Amino acid sequence: MTHILAEPSGRNDAYLGRTEWREPDVIELLTPAEMGRADRLTIEAGTPGIRLMEAAGRAVADAVGHRFAVGTRVVVLCGPGNNGGDGFVAARILRERGYVVSLLLFGDRDRLAGDARAAAERWPGAVDAASAAGVARELPKCGVVVDALYGAGLSRPLDGEARAIVEAVNATRRRVIAVDLPSGIDGATGRVMGAAVRAELSVTFFRMKPGHLLLPGRLHCGKVITADIGIRPWVLKEIAPKTSRDAPEGWRDHLHAPGLGDHKYSRGHAVVVSGPMTRTGAARMAADAALRAGAGLVTLASPPDALVVNAAHLTAVMLARMDGAAGLAEILADARKNAVVLGPALGVGEGTAALVAAAAASPAAVVLDADALTTIAADPTASFAAIAGRAAPVVLTPHEGEFARLFPDLDPRAGGADLAKTERAARAAARSGAVVVLKGADTVIAAPDGRVAIADNAPADLATAGSGDVLAGIVGGLLARGLPGFEAASAAVWLHGECGRRAGAGLIAEDLARHLAPTLADLYEAERRRGWETADEDGEDDEMGVGGTD
For residue 188, which of 19, 31, 48, 530 is within the disulfide window of CB 3.0 to 4.6 Å? Predict the structure, then answer.
């Protein structure tokens, strides 16, 4: 039997307390090469490849059946490899269920090999040659197209007739369900390989691929369903994937609801550095976010000229005078102040460089954002040397422009043109010794040890002034709470995206922090329920309620 594991929708509904409980999303992402290895390991362990192909094809047929009535005309486009074999299986099953199925094959049927050949031999209907002209003629007559041309097996850009077929599919504007990945999308990088099918749904198998989440691939995939086709999770131990989808499953063990024994000092003390009098708002938004993220105390370190302005706007956030780098060093000399955020509207130049150096010399965890990143880009090697060997983590939060200044050789407009966004971020993290949050609609979080997470829950509305300042504050607040660097950054990015979704259209940066409380409340409730479920699995008696008596 084929089981549908998850339909990622840009958020993890299991944690939001609004929908029915379900199996948590799997978060490991496999490159096409890693997925190929998962297949091989499974086959070597005794599962025939044709059984995997049959399960994959059935998952595609199930997806069609869930969305289209019996009798609907379906055109299945098959390619010359295993993706095409999946298409042959789906076509056969759909025909058996009463759908009107036409199958178009791009390539020579006699040259099909292995499991794909076996699947083709089980197809009882006609096989017509796929061409751009045939697609343009046949597709307007159908209700849905199944794209089984290439999937993740594509190794070079589409050209010639293959590209013309893909362009013809898009021109017909038919509804498309893609097998594994829309044809033309690089499963490792999300890049368009010459041309790519635009699908409303993609059915992938065992685990999603980075190309499902990275842009522009994500725009072509539509909704993604992950189907269980019989590959067992033990293969992941052999593969040891380094890339995951950013979701609570990746960091929930580090983010717990405060306990009755906690107090404000045990929850950490974050420091946010303010800019001068005319540029104070960004730091205040970051400070508010740090406090709402759960830090027990937050202090805004303010230059003397900004003290009055900041004091007029602060309530729960504390205020401290800061006379340059020496003043910041004095503030951070208090070991209880265990996280510091620098950069929002701080200004660029020697003064900011000195503040960064003071923070790096302290035992506190450090978040460098905005102007701090632009400042250290003047001599990144020296800054990275200061980061190296620190016990406490450093998190860098660049957008693409700031990233290009810090790591010019990894800029896609220069030497990094052939690198996936995940690879660029991973190399930057390894070089700098910091956790790197490479921001965008497909934000990538990378750790120096090679771990990478891709976020896909951020709405387009987050592209607004001050949004990044709030994100930096959330990271700082979570670091103050004691989360490790990679987990703090990953959780912050997810929370930031979820707050943006809750705020909705027309949001401004000030709206984001106020949504942290309900978002965290849902996470804590999920943790509580998970604890109950674990207790049930362990066979513990749960009949007595909290605070109850015999």
Answer: 31
**182 contacts 196 by C-beta, under 8 angstroms:** yes
Q: What is the pLDDT of residues 33-82, one digit of tens each?
A: 999 999 999 999 999 999 999 999 999 999 999 999 999 999 999 999 99
Instruction: Tell me what percent of the chain is helix, strand and coil, each rounded to the nearest 5.
Output: 45, 15, 40
From residue 455, alpha-carbon distances to 396, 437, 497, 507, 530 in Å are 16, 10, 8, 20, 23
Q: How far is CA 495 from CA 478, 515, 546, in A?
A: 11, 9, 29
- Domains of the chain with bracketed CATH: 3-18+26-241 (3.40.50.10260), 250-456+463-531 (3.40.1190.20)
Neighbouring C-beta atoms of residue 180, cutoff 10 Å:
29
Looking at 54-196, which runs of residues are DSSP E strands? Answer: 73-78, 100-105, 128-129, 144-148, 176-179
Length of the chain: 550
Could you tell me the pTM of the whole model?
Answer: 0.92
Residues 100 and 74 sit within 8 Å (Cβ to Cβ): yes
Distance from the Cα of residue 252 to its chain's centroid: 15
Mark 6-39 as b/e (b = at least 16 C-beta within 10 Å).
bebeebbbbbbeeeeeeebbbbbbbbbebbeebb
Instruction: Please state, as a whole number, how many other Cβ atoms lie within 10 Å of the Cβ of residue 255.
Output: 21
Parallel, antiparallel or unpaired: strands 3-6 and 394-396? unpaired
Cα gap 152→196, rounded to integer Å: 12
Residue 445 phi/psi, 5° resolution? -110, 125
Contact 44, 76 (CB under 8 A): no
pLDDT at 535: 60
172 membership: H or E segment, kind and range: helix 160-172
The residues near 263 (Cβ < 8 Å, ≥ 6 apart) are: 296
Q: What is the DSSP letter of 352?
A: H
Low-confidence ranges of the chain (pLDDT < 70): 1-25, 416, 533-550
Q: Are strands 444-446 and 452-454 parallel, antiparallel or unpaired?
A: antiparallel
One-letter identity of residue 512: L
Q: CA-CA distance, 64 to 522, in Å (whole number)?
A: 33
Beta strands, E only, 90-149: 100-105, 128-129, 144-148
| CA 354/CA 351 separation, integer angstroms | 5
CA 319 to chain centre: 35
Question: Cβ-count burial of 240 within 10 angstroms (0-12 exposed, 13-18 middle, 19+ buried)?
Answer: exposed
